[in-house]
Amino acid sequence: MPLKKLPLSTSFSFKIFNCTSEFPSNWNDFSANNIFFSKEYLHILEVSSPTNISSNFIGLFQNDKLVGVALTQFNNLSLVNSYGERDNCIKNKIRTVVFKNFSSNVLVVGNNTLTGQNTFCFSKEVPAKELVSLLYKAVEELQRQIEKNGQKVHLVIYKDFPEFQIPLFELTQFNSFYKFTTQPNMVFSIKEHWQIFDDYVADLSKKYRDQFKRARKKSEGITKRKFSLEDIENNKDRIVELYLNVAKKAPFNTFFLNDDHFEIFKKALNDKFLFYGYFKDETLIGFNTLIKNGDDIDTYFLGYDEKCQRERMLYLNMLYDMIAYSINKGFKKIIFARTALEIKSSVGARPEVLYGLMRHNNRIINLFIPKLFHFFEPKMEWTERNPFK
Predict the structure, then answer these.
(1) What stretch(es) of the chain map to CATH 3.40.630.30?
(2) pLDDT, tens digit, for every residue of 215-268?
(3) What is the DSSP letter of 193?
């Protein structure tokens, strides 16, 4: 669409892009510190988003100069069994029916496939609150476009902001939004004196060093292999099977990856996307994926054979392998994301609370959003661990 000029002769404008080929030539200036704003990564979302998600990209301009970029995703959750296969109870069945009829079309301002603030990146030359206000106008325009095309938007959600960014949303436009938190982002900070993985192991308390030794003992006979694009293509069917083994057991799902997702990812990001396969007797029993993002490593999706996972402590060994790689290669942090909170804390990850803002477009329902949110959001009880001396 053309640049949307704002009234009162303001110098600000926005443009909504449907495809990355339309981006301004300097778009990647905003991805220097975050690969998830790069044209290369966003092209992956364009061509290989889950079937129930469509992405749009927003450029924010001042005097026709690009001063901010943002991502939105329209999610049709009626196409997904959101509450998964793990807990088939009456409450879940009720939640599923109500959810699909009243809250299934969600416009996410942010990246629904990642954890963390991957929503917007702004120029430091313009006050951030000005650009949040401009982003709000762009999102409202996008919502009008979606509904003009015959799809109703039930919910608008601004996703995954650290506490220090929440004041940016202290604007009248957001008075009707409900601020919420869900499971925290698990972040592993690498200490300066950890030059090699053995330094990390040496800092573990006896209990957790014994856990490490036990896990490594259980993994004897399992081999790990770094996959090329060809390896990913040749093992595609098994990779999909292992991924779904894990994904379908999640307490809440908003999407499932396309079968060719990892191939497209590898083609687009090459060495910045790492894929590791785990083998027992030449049979692929698990895999994990990592993304290099500046000084950080972001963990991505994984999969495993459930029986091998239980017998060989495969998931825990994967976590240790991710830590070993990140320390040995000089990274500063590992973004372990949500899920499996307790086991991630047992290897040293700490919870980082993230906030979201939510508004239902039915004004009556929106009044009850605080109570409804706690009904729909599966509660997760867990105990934080400290594995270090």
Answers:
(1) 4-182+354-376, 186-352
(2) 999 999 999 999 999 999 999 999 999 999 999 887 777 899 999 999 999 999
(3) T
